[in-house]
Write a structure and sequence with these properties.
The protein contains 3 helices and 3 strands. It is an alpha/beta fold. A 3-stranded parallel β-sheet has the order 2-1-3, with helices on both faces.
Length: about 70
């Protein structure tokens, strides 16, 4: 096992929902990156891949399904 926390990218255009999910994950010890749309999330993931990605399906500019296709 490593001492480094698993990293999670949370992408959701709903500020309240995204904030709540991130707060819970951080409280559980995860290293969390936030994005409010698909373009920002993809750029963040491209720069620094994470262990887990939590995506909203419907987001502005680039939706969750298209983001998954780009990540593959």
């Amino acid at each position: 096992m490593t001492d480094r926390a698993a990293s999670v990218l949370v992408a959701d255009d709903n500020d309240d929902l995204r904030g709540s999910v991130c707060e819970i994950l951080r409280a559980e010890g995860y290293e969390v990156t936030e994005a409010d749309d698909g373009d920002t999330a993809l750029a963040s993931y491209s720069e620094r891949p994470t262990s887990v990605v939590v995506l909203d399906v419907r987001m502005p500019r680039l939706d969750g399904i298209a983001m998954i296709e780009h990540m593959q």
